[in-house]
Amino acid sequence: MIEPGVITTIHNLPQSLRQDPGNVLTSTSDTHMSTTDTHPPPFKEGHTWSDKLGILIPTDLIPYVTEEPIYVSKRQEKLKGKQHEPGSKGWLDAFYARKNHQESVDAFKLYEDRLSARAKLWGTSANSIEYREGMVKDLSAFQDHYHQKITALTDRQLFLHDKIKRGKSVHKTNQQLVKLEKELAQFKIDYFSVMDDNASHYRYKGHTSDDTKELEFRPNKRITPSSTGISRSHDHIKKARSALLIKED
Asked: Where is the composition biased (Low complexity) (predicted)?
């Protein structure tokens, strides 16, 4: 019999009960953790799993999605009432609208920044940079067009002169040359026959297109009499009196 408080060494323990450093018993909690299966989150191409919402969200929406409730209408928002279920079409549409709005804001900001940078290079303001760029672009295009047309004529002129020098068809070539030189003397290209005068940079400085001028001319405008009925009757009386005085004389 073993008395309480006395440490006793037990000999001849069965081999199965002896503690082996390699056979350490684990706690029930450790056993539970090791045997519990961990399921991976659902996967869908182009989507990301949200642990907080417990749904798959389109990856391009991730930066814009919050945990705030999305109400079905403005009225329900005031009443703190009915909400869209996270992941539903209405819920997704609300965040897509937010995404589109933010992208528009970002795009406009980028446009303004680039506008300011170009304006700085030109030494002008952001308000007039597009006007200047448009005018320079059109002037360059017109010069190219003018050069192309006039070069064709001058090249032909040189060709005809050379032909006369070589004595080939002199009479006929002289006639062609006279006609060509007359054409060169009258050569003219109207600027707005090449350029579009309805472009925004022409409206910037108050340029008026021919169509607008025609509308402003208003050939069928009714002429309003400059005098009133009273003055007309007064003039009639004066004329009648003058006629009587002439007869009396």
From this structure: 26-38
